[in-house]
Amino acid sequence: MSEYSFTIEQVKKLYIGKGACCRCGCGGEYIYPSDELGLIESNAKRIERYLKKFASGKYPVDAQEAGAYDIYEIDLSRSGNTDRVATLYIAK
């Protein structure tokens, strides 16, 4: 299993939701660490929890490049059917 360590400053957004569907938001939610006014503390805490999962080495990490982002995804489902994933969008 791969371990990936990121900082909150690198994260542009985090998707948490269904894995076997589009990423428009209908199957989950997007969490943004900041807005035009600065860091959103409650969102940053949630993102930090998921960053620990990416760094734990417990989950296989799928990495890919897509346009302006590098995308990293872990399957959080207990069944192994990608019914729940966490997807990090990291700006290049």
What is the compact description of this entry?
By secondary structure, the chain is α+β, with helices and mostly antiparallel strands. Helix content is 17%, strand content 38%.
Can you describe what's shown?
- 17% of the residues lie in helices and 38% in strands.
- With 92 residues, it is α+β, with helices and mostly antiparallel strands.
- The strands form two sheets. The chain has a five-stranded antiparallel sheet with strand order 2-1-7-6-5, covered by helices on one side.
- A hairpin with a 2-residue loop joins β5 (61-66) and β6.
- The protein is globular, with a radius of gyration of 13 Å.
SS summary, helix count: 1
Order of helix and strand elements from N to C terminus: EEEEHEEE
Query: Beta-strand percentage?
Result: 35-45%
Overall pLDDT confidence: 87
Helix content: 10-25%
* Total beta strands: 7
Shape category: globular
Task: Please give the alpha-carbon distance between the first and last residues.
Answer: 23 Å
The whole-angstrom Rg is: 13 Å
Low-confidence stretches are none
Strand order of the largest sheet: 2-1-7-6-5
Name the structural class: alpha+beta
Largest sheet descriptor: 5 strands, antiparallel
